[in-house]
């Protein structure tokens, strides 16, 4: 590699720091803490919509259906998407995505067959399927991920999407009757996600070999 290329791909300390902060924000570690550290959680920064009247419902209302309800749902995820994309652009400017590529390539390449630059999307997909989807789309548009790699990664994200958030929140009513601890449930679902993605990976690779032959 030439001196110019080495300088281009060199990761600075700003890149590592920005990557570390963004991983903390996407991981949900500080979601339930008190004090200033709450600002290091993406969901806390996104906040929530206020409620209307005494019914405790937001602008989406309740018992909606059809295209109108879908439109309001799409409208409700705009703050999440806008904030996430903004944070990612800032981190990219500081060299955080290059740091992510260097850090996650030894993990994601053998595990899922995808580039390390998808590391942030990999981390964010544990708590937010929307953010993971937006980041994956951006990586493909930037040419950092091929169509086959996207297919494998989508297969990983689609199964048990936002696994940590959904197990803790949407499945909370079932947790008291579950005999396994939450950590074991999340680990089991994550293993299923990895296995499912690798089944798709094997299929894509076998299809490629047949086309070459």
UniProtKB/TrEMBL annotation:
Domain Nucleoside transporter/FeoB GTPase Gate as annotated: residue spans: 75-180
Transmembrane segments: 12-33, 70-91, 103-126, 174-200
Source organism superkingdom: Bacteria
Record InterPro entries: Gate_dom (IPR011642)
Keyword field contains Lipid biosynthesis: no
Swiss-Prot/TrEMBL keywords: Membrane, Transmembrane, Transmembrane helix
Name of this protein: Nucleoside transporter/FeoB GTPase Gate domain-containing protein
Originating organism: Anaerosphaera aminiphila DSM 21120
Lineage: Bacteria, Bacillati, Bacillota, Tissierellia, Tissierellales
């Amino acid at each position: 590699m030439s001196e110019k290329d080495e300088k281009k791909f060199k990761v600075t300390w700003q890149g590592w720091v920005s990557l570390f902060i963004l991983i903390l924000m996407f991981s949900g570690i500080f979601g339930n803490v008190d004090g200033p550290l709450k600002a290091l959680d993406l969901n806390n920064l996104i906040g929530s919509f206020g409620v209307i009247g005494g019914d405790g419902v937001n602008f989406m209302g309740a018992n909606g259906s059809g295209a109108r309800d879908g439109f309001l749902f799409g409208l409700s995820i705009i703050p999440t998407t806008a904030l996430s994309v903004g944070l990612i652009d800032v981190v990219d400017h500081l060299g955080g995505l290059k740091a992510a590529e260097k850090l996650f390539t030894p993990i994601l390449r053998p595990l899922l067959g995808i580039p390390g630059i998808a590391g942030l999307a990999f981390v964010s997909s544990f708590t937010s399927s929307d953010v993971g989807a937006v980041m994956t789309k951006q990586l493909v548009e930037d040419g950092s991920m091929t169509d086959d790699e996207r297919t494998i990664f989508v297969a990983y994200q689609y199964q048990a999407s936002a696994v940590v958030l959904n197990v803790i929140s949407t499945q909370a009513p079932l947790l008291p009757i579950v005999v396994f601890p939450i950590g074991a449930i999340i680990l089991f679902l994550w293993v299923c996600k990895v296995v499912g993605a690798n089944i798709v990976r094997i299929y894509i690779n076998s299809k490629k070999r047949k086309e070459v032959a």
